[in-house]
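Title: [Solved] Ribosomal-protein-alanine N-acetyltransferase 3D structure

Original question kept below for reference.
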Amino acid sequence: MNSARFISDMGKHAVVVNRVAETQWHAVEDDLTIGRGHTSRRPDGRMFLSIDAWHGAAFDRLADTMLADLPKPLYTIADEADLDLISQWERAGFTIRRREGEYLVPTDPRVTGLGSAPPPAGVTIVAVGRARRGPLLTLDRLIREEVEATVGWQEMPAEVLPRPDGAGAVDPSQYAVAAQGDEYVGLLRVATVLRQPRCRRIGLIAVRSGLRRRGVARALLAHVLGSLHRCGIETASADVNESNRAAVALFEGVGARRAGGNLELVLR
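Solution (posted by the thread starter after getting help):
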């Protein structure tokens, strides 16, 4: 694969950056790997980069090589508290595109105030895992079309985006839905956090445009949080795009606490 040589700031040996696979780069100094770069293409088609390096010089050289090899635009994610990493990406030419807050959400209805949050008349809540796949797939498609026609799915959390072929895009075991007659009109995705079986993450709440601002999202949240509380789970987590003021207000209104956040950066 491709390689690039640099004179090391850390000593007399040259740093060699090799593209060792289609999506992987290694920085090597004196036969020792001192950094790794990786790319992954998200389901919406965007290319995301990650770099793990021993020191800033290795990061810069990996970034220079990767950026020369790859078509733009390119994206990356950084913890908002990792100022060194953010500075390194900005030094490579990336700029902040959006901020996503991580919220810790209490499940106790006495804390959230959601004990009396019924859905609007004519709407019922279908518990997590009970949704029928066909209507759920239809709702998923309709909501995606509505979002794509407005802010675009690039503004949604990456983990809820469908694969290009649609395979496996919706797993009914992860969704509670709001139903109006035979149609599904709202959904809430909740999943187990890897390596933390007692933790649940709320990945998406979405409601058809004609039923927004009528309490459907609040009723879905009340149902799911109440179910988690009865199972002994005291807190869930949620990632919220901080430009989505309605979503921020929904979570803050039930006592959610901002515990951190991520920055999405882009190089165009």
